[in-house]
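Below is just one:
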Amino acid sequence: MKRLEIDTQRGAGRPLVLVAFVVAALVLTTVYFREGSSGPLHATRTVVLAISSPIATAGTVLTAPFRVVADWVGGRTVSAGDYAALVKQNTTLRDRLAKLEEARLENERIHALVQFAKAENLASVGARVIGRPTDSWEGTILVDRGTRDGVKIGAPVIASGGLVGQVVDVSAIDSKVRLVTDAASGVAVIVQRTRAAGVVRGSVSGALTLDFVDKAQPPVKGDVLITSGLGGVYPKGLVVGDVIDVRNAPSDLFPHVTVDSRVPIGKIEEVLVLKPQATATSGGAGE
């Protein structure tokens, strides 16, 4: 009980101290505003500010980096809803960009095909590749043009880089094309530089070779092979490929010649199917 009484007595004096501070503050405030600018209170305030100003400036400088980081983090904080909206917008824009890029690339390929057909003065119909071989044994593709587009069996198929193959089956809406790389394919060609004749054949692996070329006139690496026009299957002058290797051993009946097609056979997406060339007819009486 004695300890409790002592604590109570100590607390009883605190209101007096608080009242004293309040009265002192009022007196100092009144004196400060009534005295002139050269009064003692104004002079004391000036000295205190002069002393504390460098400390305040140093504190501002030291805390500036922390405030900058806090502002940066705060400015980049988004709600979950805003973040989801930004992700969706980004996905939409990326998808649109991919479609525009694909359209641009397709336009370039088609333009190259059209320019090639014009330069060669070839009557043709454009087609898209809609089917590819399901195994390595089948060297054919399926295109989206058929008899209703004027396509016929035996029609040559080309790309901007040269010969692709020949139509071997056709329906009203699509056609099957045997590629020059197919093992059953054979194209009569001539070496553009020497005019030596031969036959370009495909293989199971898709590699091209030049067979039956005159041993006395072997091609060299870099020679261009073009269709000869013999047999009437392909028009003359279509590029078939380039010679990339020649082995002409004395014991060989014919040189072993490896050929590389200028057409990316496994990647083509658009082709031209050639239409029959119009033949001129002569007038006059028959015999």
User: Anything to note?
Assistant: The helical segments are 2-12, 14-34, 40-75, 80-120. The chain has four helices and twelve strands. Residues 154 and 167 are 5 Å apart (CA to CA). Residues 2-72 form one domain.
